[in-house]
Each structure stands twice: as structure tokens, then as C-alpha cells.
Amino acid sequence: MHIVVCLKPAVPAAAITYDPRSGAPLRPVERVTSLRDAVALQMAFDLQCVPGTSVTALAIADERADPLLRRALCAGATRAIRVWDADGGSALDTWSAARVAGAALGVLDADLVLCGSQSDDLGDGYFPAALAAGAGCELFVRALSVVVGDHGVEAVQKIEGGWRVGSTLRLPAVVAVEPEATRLRHHAVLGRVYRAGLARAVEVWGAADVGLAVWPAPLLEEIELALPRARTRAAPAAAAKLSAKDRLKRKKAPVAEEAAPVAWDGPPDVVARQLLERIAQWLQ
Fold this sequence. Notes:
Layout: E1 2-6, E2 9-10, E3 17-18, E4 25-26, E5 32-33, H1 35-47, E6 54-59, H2 66-75, E7 79-83, H3 94-108, E8 112-116, H4 127-135, E9 138-149, E10 152-158, E11 164-168, E12 173-177, H5 192-199, E13 203-205, H6 219-222, H7 244-250, H8 268-283
Parallel strand pairs: 1-6, 1-8, 6-7, 7-13, 8-12, 9-12
Antiparallel strand pairs: 2-5, 3-4, 9-10, 10-11
Helix pairs in contact: 2-5, 3-4
């Protein structure tokens, strides 16, 4: 059985910042393996104990994915393949990356495809469905376990309410793995498997190697949908959140107008009449 694990060089969502002018997400250069992808790779290694099983790590990315693929080789993967077209121009989105991965699966003749149910960098879980549609495979989502039994490949799926349901997969199939599917295990450094992984190299394929005459364009360009224009002005800074008590402290007290001084001149009856007139004005 040939198992292919799709790895995406991801950026943790906490490390993503946004351009204050355009609002576009700014991702750092360094990439890591998502937790769900690492769990999918560990699940493939667990299935590798079945005789005749091989594991291939596949990434649709540029050279920044090479460290991730080399670690997969040192952990026990049989092959590591990176598919990229340096002259493609447009960056791939989820839909176009799934098209390339689906074409690569056809060349590799994969029986079982494992991938994370969702990426850690603002992922929405669309890739497994797009991959299964592009490769023409069965789709099994929210998988908690995959084992090779007497009746074929059996998987357990997590459903709502904490329930579990088991199914027998019809190969080829794409399985989206949940993070609690298996426990990540440490691979001994300088062991036999590690040394064998160091001796292998990451294979770099192009569009022609996976049978694509043209490198696919992003979905929005494919359907000729206009992209939103970038903002020309910087976004206003968020106002500081103040409590009602702080707002009362910062509220300035009204300044009372200074009244003109009143001269109380004259005999007592005249002063008394002026005082009564001023009190009548106050009362009005």
C-alpha cells in the first residue's frame, strides 16, 4: 500500500500580522509543520509497519518546504517530493494547490492520502475536499484512527456530541486527520532510520512532471473575479477601551462663567430693591 502525506508549510496564526494600509496578512519567512499534518505523518508511520507499505511526503510549495520534507525523511518517510513551478508567477491558493496535488497523486498512484483537517495559519478545512475532488478519490473527514484490518482499511470518525462511527474505506481515499488521532513520538537522532533519511534527497517536480501543461491560476483569477482594491489610507488606530469609571475621571468639569461684579450702592431701601430684583431673575 502506498501512503501519501500532504504537508503544508504553515505559519502559526499568532505570528501573522497585517499591513496597516492594505489589510493583507503578513506571514514571516520561517515555516513550520502544522500539528494536524504532523499527526497525519505519524499515523502514516504507524501504518508503515504493515509489510509492503511505503510513505511519501508531498508538499506543494517553494524551497521553504525543504526543511520540513527533510525532517519527514529522517523520521521514516520513503520519499519526499516538492512540486513547484518557479516560472509559474501567480501564488497558489487552496484550490489551485489542490489541483496540483491531485495531479501528483495520479502520477504517484497513491492508495491512501493523509492530510490535516485544517491548517494552523488561518485555514478553513477546504483543502481535503478540494483534493479529493481533484484526485477523484473518496473523502473521509474528522478521522480519529486508521487501521488496516481483515476487511480492508477501517477508520473511525468523530461526529457531533462526542459520538464515534466506524467505516471501511474504499481506496483510493483522502483522509482528513484530527489532532487527537494519535500521539506524536520522538524519533531517535542518529538512528538507522535517521541516517537513511539523511542519505535521501528531496525530489523537486515541476508542472510537466505531474502531467499539467499549464500551472494553475488562483481560483479568483480562473473565474475572472475582480480582487478588492487595496486601501489607500492607513486604517485608524483602535480606540482604547475605557470603563465608565475611567470616562468619568477623564471628563472635564464645565467651567462656570464669571459673573460681573454687582455694586450695591445707595440707601438701604434701594439696595434691598436691587437684591429682590436679582433674586427674581435667578428664579426665572
